[in-house]
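A reminder before we start the practical. When you read a complex entry, don't treat the lines as separate problems. The point of joint prediction is that each chain is placed relative to the others, so the output describes one connected object in space. Small molecules and nucleic acid strands, if listed, are placed in the same frame. In the example below there are four entries. Take a minute to note the order of the lines before looking further.
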Amino acid sequence: MERTTPRERRQAATRRALAEHALRLFAEQGYEATTVAEIADAADMSTRTFFRHVRDKDEAMFAADEDAFADVLRAAAAAGAHAPPLARLLHGVRVLAAAAGEDAEAKCARERVLEENPALRARDLAQQLRWQQQSEQFLRAQGVDADEASLAAGLTLTIWREAYRRWIAVSAVPGALGEFLDTVAGELPGQVAVPGARSR
Amino acid sequence: MERTTPRERRQAATRRALAEHALRLFAEQGYEATTVAEIADAADMSTRTFFRHVRDKDEAMFAADEDAFADVLRAAAAAGAHAPPLARLLHGVRVLAAAAGEDAEAKCARERVLEENPALRARDLAQQLRWQQQSEQFLRAQGVDADEASLAAGLTLTIWREAYRRWIAVSAVPGALGEFLDTVAGELPGQVAVPGARSR
DNA sequence: GTCGACATGACACATCGTGCCACAACGACG
DNA sequence: CGTCGTTGTGGCACGATGTGTCATGTCGAC
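Here is the predicted structure of the whole assembly.
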């Protein structure tokens, strides 16, 4: 059932507000030029309280994403254990694709900020790695072989990233991200068919 | 011909020394517990000079890796433009596998440090992304279609990471990394064959 | 109304990273 | 021989980040 307490809801709202203000300020005046005090001011809190809600300045921008991934695994579980591991995970990330389509403008702004700030890009990649590891654990919990689970999770992330890249390249046309996921997944066999294991 | 000036060689040596001391100190006493002053002391320089050789504390550990990737693209170019894009890049990363086999202990220590410090892990991922982008540009310069180049570069990185993970899992047995590369590449067709593009 | 758990603020503090100036080594040039 | 410019380095001050600690406020339970 997953009841959420008022306290949890209030904290989630605070994180969402922090993420919005951080993204806006970073986009407007740059990451380095924005101080923690400014973000905290925008969100009506002291800097000390700021650091109680997010670990550091970087995390302000990603604070809201933390909770977005549980839906992916829920959808993946709904795909059923009869499907191939990669297909299960792909079914899950379609949920993420639908959610991203909701606020395409924010995703573009976010991507511009990541582009210009290697530190934030690094943070983003680290978050994706955590998602990959959670996906791998999910598959293993469903009985998938360890190596196969790891590779499938890695491939899923690669497909997601490539589809996302193409989606941003076309200015995040609503709904197109899901189609790109299918397109990229369809290109995989052609990529891997020939080279393979030249086992000596 | 690529002649290196004495100045360049001296700076490279300094970066290598910084990387060794940083990795050792991070492994011994932890990343957070190690101050810039300690690393600088170990390398016989002031903190001010430390920041003239590396951008920040993180980069101290990665300072030596910067130059390692050119060899990969050289080897990839040697594979010839008749091979499929993925095969070309895989041929390149085998060079990296051979180099990594030289100092397996250092790679294990490094991996332990990365494991325990999300900030360093993030930095590592960002470096891998830069390599991926350079690989993509390399393929495009060879006439490969943009989307195909991007996907091939992403797949290569996924294969590398999975092979590297398995190599570390067996305590970096000398020479095994190259074999893992072939193994993982050989598993790809089985992973992608079935799920593919369920185009509606 | 009182109590306890929790959120917040204020202050001090260590550390990080940079701007600026000073000093030393070294070669070029008159 | 002396002066200049370049390069590498250290010292110092400073803004900014992030944390420990204590004090205050808020809110529900009783």
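Discuss with your neighbour: Chain B touches chain A at residues 83-87, 90, 118, 121-123, 125-126, 129, 147-148, 150-152, 154-155, 157-158, 161-162, 165-166, 182-189, 191-199 (CB under 8 Å). What might explain this?
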